[in-house]
Design goal:
- 10% of the residues are buried.
- About 7% of the residues have low confidence.
- The protein is mainly alpha-helical.
- The protein folds into 2 domains: 68 residues, no CATH class; 65 residues, no CATH class.
- It contains 5 helices and 5 strands.
- A hairpin with a 4-residue loop joins strand 4 and strand 5.
- Strands 1-4-5 form a 3-stranded antiparallel sheet, with no helix packed on it.
- This is PiggyBac transposable element-derived protein domain-containing protein.
- Keywords: Membrane, Transmembrane, Transmembrane helix.
- Pfam families: DDE_Tnp_1_7.
Length: 167
Amino acid sequence: MKGVDLLDQMVGYYQIHHRSTKWWRRLFFYFLSVAGYNAFVAARSVGGPEWKYRRTGYKDWLEDLSQELIVPVTAISAPCVLPTTPTVASADHDLAQIFTKRKTAGSHSGTSVRPGSTLMGCKQCNVPLHRECFMHHVVRESSSTSGLSPSLHTPPPTSPTLPTPPS
């Protein structure tokens, strides 16, 4: 009876306090406490006389175990915003309903000029646009492509230029 009494004593001292109206949650946390103590007993029997927690006890082992089990949570970043400039330098832009779900559109969305989202967009660029913003989009694209990222907005070379060996 020594083992059972010691188990109940340790689980009672270092119980995981989780208030709940659902009976199975209380039972789950009780079994979690029992499993933690059983793991401590198993580690103590395997660890030998020079085991780190032989003198400090169950509480310190449980705290270190909980710190090891907690992994750093990486925040989920916001989804990337669709580019407001066309990705292809071309004058062939068509406004059509290309989205099935409403998308936040362009630079004027959420402002007093044109708030909200739209199903419409440029077929060529796959960019959500309001009808009122479409001409601004085409004019901006056709006026200049300077300052845009060359990897996205310059067409790939048609034929690779090979260096000529010196002769």
